[in-house]
């Protein structure tokens, strides 16, 4: 059994891209939690709640994206691809809606 038959090896580009995008999303969620928390009430508890909610949202997006598109990710990792994963983590509900609206091929 060679390395090319290993399912994790075949998904390495998707795993790396998604991991880096998730790491970047932690910092974005922290910034948004601070800004929105200050804007809505300037309470530490509110900032933590917003940050936690955003993290749950992004992690759910990571799971959905990995299950839906990871097997199709074959391109080598590049900055543009990581940025696309990052944007997809934040916009994943729109991607699911768009996917449902397109009719299946005959």
What does this structure look like?
With 106 residues, the protein is mainly alpha-helical. The chain is 77% helix and 0% strand. It has four helices and no strands. The chain has helices at residues 7-10, 12-40, 44-69, 79-101. The longest helix is centred in the first third of the chain and has 29 residues, at 12-40. The radius of gyration is 17 Å and the shape is globular. It starts with 6 loop residues before the first helix and ends in a 5-residue tail after the last helix. The model has no long low-confidence stretch (mean pLDDT 84).
* Helix fraction by DSSP (H/I, runs of at least 4): over 70%
Q: Tally of extended strands?
A: 0
Mean pLDDT: 84
Low-confidence blocks of residues: none
- Helix segment tally: 4
Strand content: under 5%
Radius of gyration: 17 Å
Q: Shape from CA axes? A: globular
Major beta-sheet overview: none
Helix/strand structural class = mainly alpha
What's the order of the H and E elements?
A: HHHH
Tell me the span between the first and last alpha carbons: 37 Å
List the helices and strands and how they pair.
Blueprint (H helix, E strand, L loop, with lengths): L6 H4 L1 H29 L3 H26 L9 H23 L5
Helix pairs in contact: 2-3, 2-4, 3-4
């Amino acid at each position: 059994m060679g390395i090319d038959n290993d399912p994790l090896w075949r998904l390495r580009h998707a795993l790396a891209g998604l991991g880096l995008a998730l790491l970047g999303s932690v910092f974005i969620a922290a910034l948004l939690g601070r800004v929105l928390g200050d804007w809505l009430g300037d309470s530490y508890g509110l900032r933590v709640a917003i940050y936690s909610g955003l993290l749950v949202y992004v992690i759910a997006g990571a799971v959905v994206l990995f299950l839906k598109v990871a097997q199709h990710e074959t391109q080598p990792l590049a900055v543009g691809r990581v940025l696309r994963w990052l944007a997809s983590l934040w916009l994943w509900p729109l991607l699911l809606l768009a996917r449902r609206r397109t009719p299946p091929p005959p």
